[in-house]
Amino acid sequence: MRLHPVGPLLAPHMASQQCKIAGFDIPANTHAFVNVWAIGRDPTIWGKPLEFCPERFLDSNIDVHGQHFELLPFGSGRRSCPGMALGLGNVHLMLANLLHVFDWTIGNSPSFSIELGIIVALANPRIVKASLKVSKHLLEAQADDAIY
Predict the structure, then answer these.
(1) Which residues are listed for heme binding in this entry (predicted)?
(2) What is the pTM of this model?
(3) Last-in-domain residue among 32, 58, 82
């Protein structure tokens, strides 16, 4: 979420009155866009910013809920993502089900080059093949039970 945020720019904000931020005078009614893509790669904030190093968060109080401005994958304040709680609460369940039910084979070599736009996407998306590792009738029976 730090290196590859879905939206590189947060929803636009507007200064309701004149203010000063980090020594800059901001006139009233100025529109601002927060570049979370650049914040996630800033070497003054992150040591080795281009490396995937999840253990950097083990002894850190930084979280993704928008209170720490070093990491804002869902935005912050009134303009934060309304689906944040749903996404964070369900991602573990969905990933566990995918790993439990399917065997995965990688079809192409990994490349993490990105295309910047309104959203950030991989330039060469990973191609994988999923094959069932549990019996199909077990999945159908479980789906039938869930409906009733």
Answers:
(1) 81
(2) 0.68
(3) 82
